Structures are given as structure tokens and as C-alpha cells.
TrEMBL record:
Protein name stated in the entry: 3,4-dioxygenase subunit beta
UniProt keyword annotations, A-Z: Dioxygenase, Oxidoreductase
Segments of skewed composition (Low complexity): 61-86
A family per Pfam: Dioxygenase_C
Organism expressing this protein natively: Phytohabitans rumicis
Length: 328
């Protein structure tokens, strides 16, 4: 590469002009370093490789329990607006999607389009108990300048207060509660009535969702234009898990953090951390703005084959022997 005083084109690195052409690569400044890091992170994500090691090492990220570093990040987010500054990260659908990709398919059932997902529908009659939760997702069409993505179909699912998933977990394979679809209104918004989910071993508290271009597309999981997860703030989780019925989550939550989570850990869930209002008595409202870019190829989803029914042995994408959900 050429120095000052020499002829030729401007010095570049990985296709980008150097901010300080007379200095070494390592002396270009923080802004240049972050740009380089994020470019590599996007490249790794495209290859399906976790970038946690690269990102955290370069940025000096730290990890800790749910009440330390993760709590600090989540606490500030829970009291401020949570809006998307770009495309929502693509994530795994996990072993329990219920979208037909690995067995059970709730999206083929009449009645799945509903706002209150606390009870099962169809031939099932169970109801999930827990702290009331309203989930509000606002879908933005990034291919159209961030306009409201009206008409999209959003499928939401999550575990109950014991950390179990309907359709899969032992004792509730015939239930389909805590699963449902809503069609985005003119403002791109969908609203679900549910219960606050548990924290199970190995995962930060979260809610799964898939975005489809329209209602007609929901019966084919390959047509999802985005698959991601909502992260719940640490301060809210700590308060919720002190409520009777959530005892199992107290110890598991103390063992996880946003930094160490295998889904949110690469960036601390910066675009997935919800804004939460309300309280554990009257209920919580969980809100997140979701940017969807239809000009990019979705890389999320990909639930493991075979269903991964609880009770199996621990392994990659498998389930802990206690019957709790797996770590993905």
C-alpha cells in the first residue's frame, strides 16, 4: 500500500478508503475499527458461523449472570423506546417451532389466527397460567423505506411458565397454547395476549416469531421472510420470576446472561431487546419494532429434524434430560 508523497490511487482496506492514509491500518481510529468488525460479522453470519468470539473479543465485551452485565443492558432498554435501526437478525426457530418444519404443524389448523394465545384451540382445551403479557410487534418494510408492513402474517410462540412448549413437551403434546398468528394492521402492528414466559436452562428469556408475506403463506414455513426472537429485559425478568408459579426460573435465570446466550450473545440482542412497561401484578406490555428486508435472503429458521421431544439426552440441538427445552 502506498504512503503519502507517492503517486497512485488512495489507500484502501477491504474496499474502504482509509481515514488516515498516512498511518498504519491499526491507527485508523475507533470508527474505522468498528466498521471493519461489523463487516466481518455480517460475513460470518452469512456463512452461518457464530461471531460471538470475534465481536466480544474485539470490543472487550464481558459476560456475567443475569443480574450483572445482562441486567445493566436490559434495564436501560426496558425504560426506553425499542426501535429497529435495521434488519432484525435472523435466528434459529429452535426445536419447537410447530410450523411443520420438523413435525407438528399448528399453522395448518383452523383457528390459529387469533390474538389471545393463552388457551389451546380446536380439540384441545388447556390454558397456560402466568403473569399476563401483551406482546406488540411493529413490522417495518425496509425495502420500502421503513414503511409500515401492513398485511404481513406474524406467527408467535414461546414456552409456558414451567419452561415447556406445547405440541412437544411431555404432558402437553396435545395442547397448542402460546402459539398464534396475527395479521399486521395498516401501521404494521400485531398484538397478542399471552403470559410471561419462563427462563429455562441455557437460554436467555425469549419469544420466537416468524414473519410471512401474507396469511396465505403461513402453511409453508419456507415462505417466512424473517425468523427471529424477542429478548426480555433483565430487570423485568428478575421481578417476574419472584412471583409464585415461576420458582423454576429463579435459579436458571441466575446462570445466564445476554452476553453468553447462544442467540443474543453476538451483539447483546441490541435489535431484539424489547421495551417493557407495566408490572408483575397487572401484567406487562412487551413491544419491539421489527425491520424486515425482503431484498435479502432469509438465513434463520432451520429447526432440527425429528421434533426433539423433551426427555432426550443433552447434545447439540437436543434437550436436557430433565424434560426442559434445549439450549437453542
Amino acid at each position: 500500500m502506498e504512503r503519502s508523497g507517492q503517486s497512485g490511487p488512495p489507500r484502501t482496506y477491504e474496499g474502504r478508503p482509509l481515514a488516515k492514509p498516512d498511518e498504519d491500518i491499526f491507527d485508523q481510529g475507533l470508527g474505522f475499527d468498528i466498521g471493519t468488525l461489523m463487516g466481518r460479522r455480517r460475513f460470518l453470519r452469512a456463512l452461518g458461523i457464530g461471531a460471538a468470539g470475534l465481536g466480544l473479543a474485539a470490543c472487550g465485551g464481558n459476560s456475567g449472570s443475569g443480574s450483572s452485565s445482562g441486567s445493566t443492558a436490559a434495564s436501560s432498554s426496558s425504560s426506553s423506546s425499542s426501535t429497529s435501526s435495521g434488519e432484525i437478525p435472523d435466528e434459529t426457530a429452535g426445536p419447537y417451532p410447530g410450523d411443520g418444519s420438523n413435525g407438528p404443524d399448528v399453522l395448518e389448523q383452523s383457528g390459529v389466527v387469533r390474538s389471545d394465545i393463552r388457551s389451546s384451540f380446536g380439540s384441545a382445551s388447556g390454558t397456560a397460567e402466568g403473569i399476563p403479557m401483551t406482546l406488540e410487534l411493529t413490522i417495518q418494510d425496509l425495502a420500502n423505506g421503513g414503511a409500515a408492513f401492513a398485511g404481513t402474517a406474524v406467527y408467535v410462540w414461546h414456552c409456558d411458565r414451567d419452561g415447556n412448549y406445547s405440541l412437544y413437551s411431555e404432558g402437553i403434546t396435545n395442547e397448542n397454547y402460546l402459539r398464534g398468528v396475527q395479521i399486521a394492521d395498516s401501521s404494521g402492528k400485531v398484538t397478542f395476549t399471552s403470559i410471561f414466559p419462563a427462563c429455562y436452562s441455557g437460554r436467555w428469556p425469549h419469544i420466537h416469531f416468524e414473519v410471512y408475506p401474507d396469511q396465505a403463506s403461513i402453511t409453508d414455513s419456507t415462505k417466512a421472510i424473517a425468523t427471529s426472537q424477542v429478548a426480555l429485559p433483565a430487570d423485568v425478568c428478575k421481578t417476574a420470576y419472584a412471583v409464585s408459579g415461576y420458582e423454576k426460573s429463579v435459579s436458571t435465570f441466575a446462570q445466564v446472561s445476554l452476553d453468553s446466550d447462544n442467540v443474543f450473545g453476538d451483539d447483546g440482542g441490541v435489535k431484539q431487546l424489547a421495551t417493557v412497561t407495566g408490572d408483575a401484578t397487572s401484567g406487562y406490555t412487551v413491544a419491539l419494532t421489527v425491520g424486515v428486508d425482503t431484498t435479502t435472503t432469509p438465513t434463520g429458521g432451520a429447526a432440527p429434524a425429528g421434533g426433539g421431544a423433551p426427555g432426550g439426552g443433552q447434545g447439540p440441538g437436543g434437550t436436557p434430560p430433565s424434560g426442559a427445552p434445549p439450549t437453542s
